[in-house]
């Protein structure tokens, strides 16, 4: 489940709170979403930007949300898309794992392997951007290099190589890859290049990705991918819906059934 709280999309009562206390509104919403989806969605991907925009108050709301996610038993991905080199990358890794206590963080792979290393050496993990679901990503990620690979394929090879040393008993590396559900043909090729890499797959649901689109993200044994849906789960209600938390729970359950049945077919 992707948790991307936006004040203008919240239930009416929380939008009223959000007019003067936006961080408080998104915190209340986030905690209700986590409670509603506990034991339905195993993983929550929390979009850091939705909280960071509100400064200190927003960061406090993020900290409370992260604490609640752990208390509910979610595996926690901090979607912060960090990217830097040297000591700066070390600081970002410490912020994600030592301060925020996330299990995973999303990172930008375009600074190379040395920018990725700090995020996978503390018994935690990272998902590196490889093939994103946004249309604008095509302008860079689809470009062909002199050796015939696309830029996305070159980054996939870098991620696979950088993660080799962290492959554990599960057969997967601690360095995963973000591969969008809206790029199924690319996903199939990338899966072949990264057999030991967990895929974090955005774009399912409201962004247009369906069951047929996500199947290439899995290995032949049906493992290796985490499918994320955000808007279709956390905003299924009318703003005046008195049981909006119940609507979220039902949307999460429906997504769970759809994925379970569709991937078995």
In terms of structural class, how would the helical and strand content be classed?
alpha/beta
Using only C-alpha atoms, the radius of gyration works out to 18 Å
Shape: globular
CA-CA gap between termini? 22 Å
Summed up, the domain count is 1
CATH class wording: Alpha Beta
For the secondary structure, the number of strands is: 8
Chain-averaged pLDDT:
95
| H/I helix tally | 12
User: Largest beta sheet: what is the strand line-up?
Assistant: 1-2-3-4-5-6-7-8
User: What fold name stands as the CATH topology?
Assistant: TIM Barrel
Instruction: Describe the sheet with the most strands.
Output: 8 strands, parallel
Helix content range of the residues, please? 40-55%
Strand content: 5-15%
CATH superfamily: Aldolase class I
> What is the CATH architecture descriptor?
Alpha-Beta Barrel
Order of helical and strand elements: EHHEHHEHEHEHHEHEHEHH
- Spans of at least 5 consecutive residues whose pLDDT stays below 50 are none
Describe the structure.
With 265 residues, this protein is of the alpha/beta class. The chain has a single domain, classed as TIM Barrel (Alpha-Beta Barrel). The chain has an eight-stranded parallel beta sheet. Helix 10 links the parallel strand 7 and strand 8. The longest helix has 21 residues. It is globular. The protein starts with a strand and ends with a helix. The model has no long low-confidence stretch (mean pLDDT 95).
